[in-house]
Amino acid sequence: MPNHHYRKLALTLALALIQISKQELDWDAQEDECSHFLVRQEWRSLSQAHKAEYIAAVKCTQSLPARSGFEAAQTRFDDFQAVHIHVAGEIHIVGHFLPWHRRFIKIHETTLRQECGYRGAIPYWDWTLDADSLDSFSKSPVFDPVHGFGGDGVPGTYILPNDPDGTSELFPETFVGCVQDGPFASHRLHIGPGKLRTDHCLVRGLNDTYKDFLTSEAVARTMEQPTFELFRVQLEGGGSNPYPAQHGSGHLIVGGDMGNLFSSPGDPLFYLHHANLDRLWWQWQEEDLPTRFLDISGRLHVNGPRLTQVTLNYWLTFHTLAPPMSVRDTMDIQKPPFCYAYA
């Protein structure tokens, strides 16, 4: 091979290493203390301009090329959905459910800020405000077509594809139809529903069936749990709690991809829902920080033995989205790399 080919190859490899190193520095370089905090606010408390800025940032990720390496992912928005689908069986009904999603939401927040110029924090959706109301959930401001995420799916506009091996957990009653108003009416998903790879609209199927699990009274029962595992089971469901609880109910109220275990990040409301779950976990931690910074337990694998428990030293993986992180490093949102608070 001529010398100039060797030089070209060496230069290409060097540039690749520089890029990888830069990405690692972006995520890992951090001080011991936070220099400033992002403040996550409830969606309806944001100004109209702030809401528009957040929606624009989400749409930005839907236009940027994918970087995750997953074949089905075409955009940065897809990257997050693809990773979630890939690990869904490992991060639900387990002790590290909340730590994993805390980091996942933060990675998405950082992506909005670093790659799309968003200046704020991810907002959260406090669905107790809607569940305590006599109105239907469809009246929630998050479903506003102008200052929200669009409304319900329109019946007859979507046909649920066949699931050949039956592993995608598709429930036809939740896939009512395509969302035809709001900022994501024309958005096409490239992944899902479930584990499938199909090009489809944003599908929803709003319903009030699980409303009682999202009331302030239901949340109060969750918050009074004395240990992390009891709190997690009451919040997520599973284990000794046969009901969908706050986690599952928030997904199923919306329906469509949002109501699916695997492909739920295909609906932008996923991030507001999980930010609210994270907020509740933080509020529970704040009741006894010295103890609850260290309180982690629960089975490591959904079908594994109860004796195999998650610990603070367990490593959470996010594939190409960000480097791995220990559960211990997710426990305090007032420390880097989190550095946020809830209003």
UniProtKB/TrEMBL annotation:
Domain Tyrosinase copper-binding per the UniProt entry, residue ranges: 267-278
GO MF annotations, alphabetized: metal ion binding; oxidoreductase activity
Record-linked SUPFAM superfamilies: Di-copper centre-containing domain (SSF48056)
Signal peptide: 1-23
Pfam families given in the database record: Tyrosinase
Coiled coil: none
Keywords from the named record: Copper, Metal-binding, Signal
InterPro entries: Di-copper_centre_dom_sf, Tyrosinase/Hemocyanin, Tyrosinase_Cu-bd
Domain of life (superkingdom): Eukaryota
Protein name: Tyrosinase copper-binding domain-containing protein
